[in-house]
Amino acid sequence: MVDGHQLRTKKTLSCGCIRKQRSRQMIRENPATRKYIGNWEVLQKTWHPKSDERRANNKSGVTGVSYDQAQDRWIARLYFNGRYVLNRTFTDKSDAVEARKEAEKRYL
């Protein structure tokens, strides 16, 4: 977003809409990008990793389950549709893992 004064004094020629339109057009016209438009399978592993596939920085061994040393508790989380549908703490790791798996069944 651009300040109105910048537009009125012609220090800036656009509010940003032209840039958005040009970017959208470039993406749609790019053949390398077009083949991936609408292909959700390419992004599935990034968005919804399976519980047995863990990222390099995962120390618990289970996606969405971590250990909080300050609280001395396990945390189970699942972020879905822009909000946390699971964000609870547990004293036992197995309870946190079970809660995460149940949330995956319900939401994913």
Gist?
This protein is 41% helix and 19% strand.
Please describe the topology of this protein.
Blueprint: H1 4-8, H2 17-29, H3 31-34, H4 41-47, E1 65-68, E2 73-80, E3 83-90, H5 93-107
Antiparallel strand pairs: 1-2, 2-3
Describe the protein.
The chain has 108 residues and is of the alpha+beta class. The chain has a domain at 56-108: Single alpha-helices involved in coiled-coils or other helix-helix interfaces. Helices cover 41% and strands 19% of the residues. It contains five helices and three strands, in the order H-H-H-H-E-E-E-H. It has helices at residues 4-8, 17-29, 31-34, 41-47, 93-107; strands at 65-68, 73-80, 83-90. It has a three-stranded antiparallel β-sheet with strand order 1-2-3, covered by helices on one side. The longest helix has 15 residues, at 93-107. The radius of gyration is 22 Å and the shape is elongated. 8% of the residues are buried.
Attribute tags:
108 residues; alpha+beta; Single alpha-helices involved in coiled-coils or other helix-helix interfaces; 3-stranded antiparallel beta sheet; 5 helices; 19% strand
Order of helices and strands: HHHHEEEH
Q: What helical percentage do the residues reach?
A: 40-55%
Could you say what the CATH topology of the domain at 56-108 is called?
Single alpha-helices involved in coiled-coils or other helix-helix interfaces
> Which blocks of ≥5 consecutive residues have pLDDT under 50?
none
Let me know the average pLDDT.
83
User: Do you know the CATH architecture of the domain at 56-108?
Assistant: Up-down Bundle
Strand share of the residues?
15-25%
- What spatial form do the alpha-carbon principal axes imply? elongated
Radius of gyration, rounded?
Answer: 22 Å
What is the CATH first-level class name of the domain at 56-108?
A: Mainly Alpha
Order of strands side by side in the largest beta sheet?
Answer: 1-2-3
